[in-house]
Amino acid sequence: MKKSLYELASVIRSKNSGPFQITLDVLFEEEKIYETVKRSGQITRQRIAQIYQIDEQKIRELVFFDPALGFKITFDRTISSGTCFDTDVYGAQQHVPLGEIMIPV
Hints:
This protein is α+β, with helices and mostly antiparallel strands. It is 24% helix and 31% strand.
């Protein structure tokens, strides 16, 4: 059986990390669920690059932080915040593809 990250996480959010990067935060309420996601092999640089259609080198951080039961991903924006053709000035809508990743449970 598989569940989406949306179904498993208590918080999934995105925001600017300065004008040139996006940060994604995912937090869990239960350690068991966090460990399941962490060990699933679904949260990797390669997978993030694939779902966001970016080069893997644009991913600056992918960090699991056990004390907070969560992980953080930071990647370079394709267009800097607030410039012509930017569709999400605050980076607040970029978590959607991440939330749709299916995790075996």
